[in-house]
Write a structure and sequence with these properties.
Elements: H1 3-8, H2 11-34, H3 41-63
Length: 64
Amino acid sequence: MKQAVIIEMSTEELVGKLTEERTTLSKLNLAHAVSPLENPVQLREKKKTVARILTEVRRRELEA
């Protein structure tokens, strides 16, 4: 998910998306532990998306 898309989302949407992305990341980690993923780059992308969302949420907290 691109940073521009994340910035346009509301805070409530970000919190919901964060929960969704974390759930997906944990499922991917579990699947990767059982048997290697066909595309392990997905793990890196999900981690970066979670970090981007957390960064935006934190930035909004500091602005308020």
